[in-house]
Records
---
Amino acid sequence: MELLFNLTLNGLATGMLIFLLAAGLTLIFGLMDVLNFAHGGLFAWGAYSGIWIYSTTGSFLIGIIGAILTGFILGIITEKWIIQPVYGNHVQQILITLGLMLVLSEMLKVIWGPNQLTANTPEYLSGSWEIGNIIIIKYRVFIIVVGLLVFAGVQFLLKKTKIGLVVRAGVMNKEMVQALGINIKKVFMFVFMIGSGMAALGGVLFGPYSGVIHAGMGMEFAILAFIVVVIGGMGNFKGSVMAAILVGLSGSFMAYYVPELSLAVNMLLMAVVLIVKPQGLFGGKG
């Protein structure tokens, strides 16, 4: 029972970290029809900037805020100077964002060096609670709570606010929205900024979770994020959280029971989903 609970908790925490990255991809693709393969680079930059600020100031909260602001800034720069010239052309988007991904990874090495950096868990989030024979690690619970709050917040933003209404209207008919006097470019930049901030948040939370961060982590998690987006359904925000949890749980249980398949299980899971339901578990037809 204790083992089952711990594996589940670990899988949920991993799933929420992947969700924060995949949700940004889902937003950007679902609302803007942009394939951003540099999204993992924003995840890595969030980790490095946030952990550096945390280690400098001694405040994990300030580190989180700094990581999110880094994501916002990089998101604005990426959308304005990299994405805008290739709107509507998926092939060019893939090529240019893959190039940006490599640049972002190499810049991390230039600024912080090629070696791994240690990321310590804040004292107030370290340790665990013990309930009977069950041990609950505090930091994993923290990650799960943050992931759920982000999901609820983005859902509220899109469904219940004026900016969310404008975003959804701009996706359906951007010419009509522009005719009403709304600058659709600024709206899309806002969406890209939010998606990038979520990726950076996932990065800084991943640091204490793993204990170390490295420049190649962006590419590793970007692959997982795209698997989640495909499984959940391209552009389906609710699908991304369900798929991320599924991927996190499958990885956690496989790593314990069948370690040889732990790296391949997510690819196998995606292949099965595509065979059974090509549009993804929660994706619409077409």
---
Amino acid sequence: MIVRSITRAVVALSFVVAPVAAQSTLGAYAPVATKYHIVSKGKTSQVMMGQSQEFETTSNQLLSVAVAKAGDALSLTMTLDSATVTSGAPTGAPDMSSAIGMKFVGAMALDGKVASSQVLDKSGVVSTSDFASNLRSILPRLRVGATQGAVWVDSFTVLGKQGDADLTSESVVSYTLAGDTMVAGTRAWKVTSVSATTIHGKGSRMGSDYTIAGDVKGTTTSVVSAAGILLGQFSESDSNLSVDVPAAQMTIPIVQHGTVQVDKVP
């Protein structure tokens, strides 16, 4: 169905840990090679042809992340090692086989800002997988030298393809350096954020053109060690999308609540 291409919502993140004695200022990201286990859960409701449908989707991913020195900046490489999806959606769970082995390769500033990037398949060429636009940096934007209570804003636009739909998402994220903490004996900073994303796009399926529009609102808390390594994230988001099919005089509202947990693998 048309909605198969657009029910994967953008998510943001939230994590809470106990505070400890204050550190001085927020530092930059450091070179590291590590893995993250990511669990995403979504509850979706949609109304199509007068029929209300509700279903849940869960995905488990293992992601290898390498941050390396590149002159005065950094490079970021993320490899999707494995991914499984279970879903009660009418269309069933998506086939993730084309996504396994994909690499996100980007040039990154010390604060996590990705200046340029591309997604490659396991053979090293630019990926044409439907999931390529979903593979993007999981590292929050930092403000090097920030002290507790500091606020900064980031914005970015992502162009992508989901199935037969071309989508554009425009996001504004407001970050706050909430305080410092201790995680498994490691001193760290807690960075919270509030995000607002607008989504619009169009596609054609079975000879029918359609448009997509909506928004996603989320909250994020990321935990970054004092040494500049992401330790974990949790997220919560709510999305409201609408698919309009003029030829069928049909509008499909889609509402989703999503959560994401990101854990650094020891």
---
Amino acid sequence: MENISHEGIIIKSTGGLYTVEKDDGTSEECRAKGAFRHSKITPLAGDRVTFECADGKEGFITKIRERKNSLIRPAVANVDLLCVVIASRNPDPDLFILDKLCAVAKNNGIEVLIIVNKDDIGDSEEIFEVYEKAGFMVVPMCATDPDGYEKSIETIRNLARNKISFFTGASGVGKSSVLNVVYPELCLETGEISKKIRRGKHTTRVTTLFKMGEDTYVGDTPGFSSFDVVGFSMLDSEVLLSCFPDIEKHALDCKYKKCTHICEDGCNVMKALANGEISPSRHESYKQLFNELKEVKPWDN
């Protein structure tokens, strides 16, 4: 039987099997041709692809269109908007991980929306102050009692419209619950926080894209407990400063040509930090990433 060529977008990937949605809205289960494996290329959710299949048979992805961007954790491609869900408490937000995600997104041309869930049980004022000042969009949320958060829900929907958006967040922050509030039709499985270890049970095991309207796709990704941008080569020391625009704007007027903006006396960034113009937590994240990245050798990438 003759194979027929189709175009589509990968909406789900698990264990080497890919669900590809065709332009007519139907979908096919496909595997990647061996040539991709030999070239060390892995198809990702969000990829626009060409695939071939015959009636009643499994399809094979034959071509991956040029990507706008790609990430490794979450393993996704062509992302327009990254919605990072954190909790105001239980678990407490890890600002270094949040800053890593924001830096990687900035480096890949991805908009960032920070969603502060559990807004009812913790003081999130400082998070809003720090990240709005740094130029990021931040909205409050209480997924367990969403009444009164209609503005935040509408903001998320509007920002995600006509885009490929992915929601990600540490285990236990309520990422799937937030998605269920914003898009009730998803009915995603949610987990509970372990009272003993204060960590969430992973409830998302595969990367999945859900079509929420014409040209609007929303992705649910496995929760993360660490984010190694250095090992994943998604960031390097040459571009790090541009990934922290709140620090970069002060660095531009620094009198030192080769300043690291970490601790130098007279550095304009250090002056801004002392004057409260730069958040200490943001500068600490920049410093940690700078020190990690300077240890990376060219052959490590």
---
Amino acid sequence: MTDEDTALLTRIAQALERLAPPPPPPTDLAAADAFVWQAERGRLEPVPTVNRVALRLLQGIAQQREILLGNTRRFAAGLPANNALLWGARGMGKSSLVKAVHAEVLAERRHAVALVEIHREDIPTLPRLLDEARGSRRRFILFCDDLSFDGRDSHYKSLKAVLEGGIEGRPDNVVFYATSNRRHLMPRDMIENERSTAINPSEAVEEKVSLSDRFGLWLGFHNCDQDTFFAMVEGYAAAYGLAVPAEQLQAESGEWSMTRGARSGRVAWQYIQDLAGRLGRALAVAD
């Protein structure tokens, strides 16, 4: 290579450097109380306003609420706390409870803990996220909504290592909360297939289901009965100032739930949205 070639390549490299965008500034972890992990950019994106429901409006899950609230309060106070798996029926307030508990703890201890949402497909990047959190003085709840794995998905191994088994271990300033429709995070047919095809069925199944054992708290959510469903509807109506007689609320919401084939907190909220629309009312929480 001649000196002219070297000089030309140097000019090209310098031009490319000038054209390349500057690296993003480091995230100010004190700028917000909630973030979304942007895996492709390797940074935490602040969330100014979290889409959440007030804790007092979540009906039919009193025991789960108290357990998760107590665990989160201890964590915010700098005490040991468990990872939590909220599993069970759809629409019964699993993700709503995580966000509502976070808000409740923040009301008691300002900026005590940040909520960080990580998407299921970004689980393999968890070690990078933990490196980001490990160097901070803040405490973080890493939150993955609707977590599950299928038969061809090996991401669960990454999560197992991060939760307990890695050399560095989980930082003291981090806990992991996840919601799932499945208690063991994997479909039953996947577990049964492992049992039927493996050389050592018991060991194969243990490998699959041991992920859920990494969660110290298992909080089950089940379909609600009619009385609880009506309590949800009436609680929402009172909170949002929708002055409708209880008999009408029960009749309409009962019919609404029948058309959906389910009774849950989500169905109750969808009815309330429909009711508020028909009444021409915005859904702002009444004082």
